[in-house]
Amino acid sequence: MILPITLVMAAAAGLINIWLAIRVTQVRSKANVWLGDGGSEPLVARTRAHLNFVEYAPFVLILIALIEAARGPSLWLWLIGVAFILARLCHGLGMDPTSPRILRRIGAMTTLAVLLALSVWALAIGYQGAAAPPAPNGQTIFAVPRA
After folding, report:
1. What is the 3-state secondary structure (H, E, C) of 24-74?
2. CB count, 10 Å around CB of 63?
3. CA angle 125–83–129, rounded 5-degree value
């Protein structure tokens, strides 16, 4: 089964991860710090932006995949996925000490809103599945739409 939304969002997340890693390496090279942060505020900021992305992306991608597998592709899932990608770009840029802090706030708040929305959506799907009556022959019924 191909999950097109998950596939696109995971690819975009992979590209953002590479971009954030390159940004860390650029500051490391400039500061000549190859282990730790050397007390460099720009290096700390870029490292935290990268680590923060790695902390949130797996949860969001797993939830998108599970919701898409359970309910199929939907416009809402596309929109939530795009919001997450844009939020992580804003956050990555907003973590630099010289950039506008509003980008960091927008990125962080949007990421939390996306994670909350996906979590509630997944809980609703799980509850609906748990509330479904068992099949007459005792087998589990999965409501996964087929193309």
Report:
1. HHHHHHHHCCCCCCCCCHHHHHHHHHHHHHHHHHHHHHHHHHHHHHHHCCC
2. 21
3. 5
Query: Could you give the C-alpha distances from 83 to 30, 32, 78, 94, 114, in angstroms and in order?
Result: 32, 35, 9, 16, 7
CB 130 within 8 A of CB 72: no
Neighbours of 35 (CB within 10 A): 6
Tokens (6 digits) for 5? 């939304």
Cα distances from 7 to residues 2, 69, 73, 86, 106, in angstroms, run 8, 12, 11, 16, 25
- The structure tokens listed for 138 are 């005792």
Res 142: pLDDT: 46
Averaged over successive runs of 10 residues, the pLDDT of the chain (147 residues) comes to 91 96 88 74 86 95 94 91 96 86 94 96 85 53 48
DSSP 87-109: HHHHHHHHTSTTS-HHHHHHHHH
